[in-house]
Amino acid sequence: MDLEHKFCRFDTEITVADGTKIEGYASLFGACDQGGDVVYAGAYGLSLKRLAGEGRAVKMLWQHDPAQPIGIWDEVREDDRGLYVRGRILDCIEKGREAAALIAAGAIDGLSIGYRTVKAAKDEKGRRLLTELELWEVSLVTFPMLPSARVAAKGESLDASMLRELAQALEGARLDLARH
C-alpha cells in the first residue's frame, strides 16, 4: 500500500519556541478529520516500537518531501490524547531557516503525518477507523486538514474567539459527517 498523508492544523496543539523548538500533537485520537478518518489510541504503538528497536526515528520533513529533511524529532510517542512530537528545526540548513521564518510570520502553521495503513475498518457512517499505522514522517506543511486552527508561534497567545472558531469548525464537520 502507498504512503498516505494526514494533515492537521493546530491551535493549542503545538508550540514553537526560540524559532526552532517545536512540540505538540501531530494526531489526536478519536477526532474525525476532513477525509473521514478517525485514528484510534494505540494505532502508532507497534510502529514506534519497531522504529526504536531498529534504532531509527520518525523523520521531520518539509511538505512531505523526502529530499528535504528540516529537523529532528527528539521525541515521538503516544499518550492518552494522541501522537505527541517534540523536536528541533535545524537552522543550520537553508530550508530550516526558511521554515522557522515562515512559522514566525504565520505563513506555515500545520503538521501532517506520512504513514501506511496497516489495519482499518469502515463504520456505518463510512468513516475509516484506523487501528494500526506505520508512521514514517511528520512534516511541516502549508495546507493542514483543520482549516480554522493554527500553530502559535513564540509570544503569541490564543484568545477565546480563536477557540470558539475551532469548536464551530469541528461541530460543522461533525454535522456534515452525520448527514452522510
From TrEMBL:
Pfam families: Peptidase_S78 (PF04586). Residues 17-159 form the Prohead serine protease domain. Keywords: Hydrolase, Protease, Viral release from host cell. One of its GO terms (molecular function) is peptidase activity. One of its GO terms (biological process) is proteolysis. Transmembrane segments: none annotated. It comes from the Bacteria. This is Peptidase U35.
